[in-house]
Amino acid sequence: MTAPSETTAPAEPRRILVTGGAKGVGAAIVRALAAGGYAVDFTYRSSGDAATTLARELADAHGVAVNARALDLSDTAAIEAFCAAHEETSYYGLVHNAGQSYDALTAVMSQDKAEAAMQVNFWSVTRLVKTFIRPMIRARSGRIAVIGSVTALQANAGNAAYAASKGALLSYLRTLAIESAKRGVTANYIAPGFIDTDMMAPYAAYRPQMEKQIPAGRFAAPDEIAGLVAFLMSPPAAYITGAVIPIDGGLTAQLGVHR
């Protein structure tokens, strides 16, 4: 029995790995998780200054460890090295946010560019899961969430390669969910619609027209995606696995033909 004068050492914060966490939706996810008391490692490819600043800011604000890790998910050798260097790290959660777009009509699609998108959007996460799910299984507790896309659910002209990569991610994730459920690990697919980030800047001229087609009448804010991720990492989400969760303002709930 513990003597009344003794204190119990606080438990170490659970650690979560987030890919593509330096800016946009990824940064919002890192902020939400750190605010929730999680220790966070997040990867970045080219935004080194932003990543370092974010990590320092959140560590100071919330008193948890937040680490920025350089990693190019298009580089298979770099991923292998990262996994080898961190294979003893026990992550409670893995959030795959990093993504690579590629827009082209099917008749002119470049295989090289399509394969590059598939590497970042799909193959990279399969390699990370292969390494980091093992400690989750041993602990019989873990959370995996991926940021997919509504394009995996409904077709959009010019998005064949991107949608295929996100569709592959969806099929993989749901299989992972049924394989890991009895071991206390959840795996869920988030399917955002249009999000108000720098990625949408090239389509600024079309934004009013795009928003008219969304029942909610606007793009999502990054914090709204991050809030869903934070919930899926939380204890009340322990029975949610294999789910496909659109967060698109009602976009996929409606028919695409308007009167």
Automatic annotation (TrEMBL):
Q: Name one GO biological process term.
A: monocarboxylic acid metabolic process
The record's PROSITE patterns line, in alphabetical order, gives: ADH_SHORT
Is Oxidoreductase among this UniProt entry's keywords? yes
Pfam families the record matches:
adh_short_C2
Q: Does the keyword Oxidoreductase apply?
A: yes
What keywords sit in the KW lines?
Answer: Oxidoreductase
Cite the InterPro entries for this sequence: NAD(P)-bd_dom_sf, Sc_DH/Rdtase_CS, SDR, SDR_fam
Q: Which GO terms describe its molecular function?
A: oxidoreductase activity
What the record says about family reads: Belongs to the short-chain dehydrogenases/reductases (SDR) family.
Protein name, entry field: NAD(P)-dependent dehydrogenase (Short-subunit alcohol dehydrogenase family)
**Organism source for this protein?**
Chelatococcus asaccharovorans
